[in-house]
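ok new one. same drill as before - structure tokens go in, u give me an amino acid for every spot. 144 of them this time. try not to just spam alanines like last time pls lmao
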């Protein structure tokens, strides 16, 4: 699936977003802020990361969308940190991030692997075949 032409001068980078961009995108897109020391420690442990950056030297911020996959790389994969700068939302960038992640999972996740995510926008993820776990199971979490 080609990247949308709605925003010119974009690059898809198959790499975890840099720390400062990760922190900024989570904040401006409405995701829960994460402590910088945990971000620094956690990002290199990702299985896969992808971000979309602007190829515009005059742009204030270069990274405008991101996502990553964490887990053990065989039995369990979790899609996390899908975020798009609000100035660029509605242009297919979240869908492109998800397509890149699904391409990775198609290559790397073995048959029977469990792929999960917390869906704040279920409609996006349903387009990729994800289903709500209710009533079979219930998603749960704890924050320390």
């Amino acid at each position: 699936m080609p990247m949308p032409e709605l925003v010119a001068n974009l690059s898809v980078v198959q790499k975890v977003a840099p720390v400062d961009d990760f922190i900024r995108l989570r904040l401006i897109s409405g995701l829960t802020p994460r402590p910088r020391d945990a971000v620094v420690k956690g990002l290199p442990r990702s299985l896969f990361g992808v971000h979309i950056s602007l190829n515009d030297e005059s742009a204030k911020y270069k990274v405008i969308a991101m996502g990553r996959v964490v887990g053990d790389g065989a039995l369990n994969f979790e899609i996390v940190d899908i975020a798009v700068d609000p100035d660029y939302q509605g242009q297919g960038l979240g869908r492109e991030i998800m397509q890149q992640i699904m391409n990775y999972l198609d290559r790397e996740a073995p048959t029977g692997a469990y792929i999960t995510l917390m869906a704040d926008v279920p409609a996006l993820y349903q387009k990729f075949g994800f289903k709500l776990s209710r009533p079979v199971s219930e998603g749960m979490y704890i924050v320390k």
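The beta strands are 10-13, 48-54, 63-71, 76-84, 114-117. and btw The chain has a mean pLDDT of 90.
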